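Checklist before submission:
- one chain only
- standard amino acids only
- sequence pasted in full

Submission:
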Amino acid sequence: MALLYKIVRDNRKNSTNLYYGRAVQINTIDTDGLADIIQRNCTLKKSDVIAVIAELVEVMTDQLQNSVTVKLNNFGTFEVKKRMERVVVNPGTQQRMLVPPKLVLNFKPIASIKENLKNGGLQDE
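Returned file contents:
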């Protein structure tokens, strides 16, 4: 599977006709689609797979809300981090604004997933 991307021109003031690649999302899969794929690859019924996915999401949500880091082996780590308050400048008006602190969800994939994406997507084996 190859990672699709498009070439985009950098339109910032200080850039001099620079171009870069931006990943293109071509589709989205939902819980039902994931359950179909998993069900084809194992002996569980689709309704059982959907129940497991729903429970996984619920348990992960509870753990993350309790400031517990969630690590899924062979996939990655989810954790809640606090973004500190900061001052940003509106480039059009040069007006300074204070952005309050907030909690954000962070995901860090395992090294092999990072490497596969860096090399253009999963390689067919």
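Reviewer check: The helical segments are 31-41, 46-65, 111-118.
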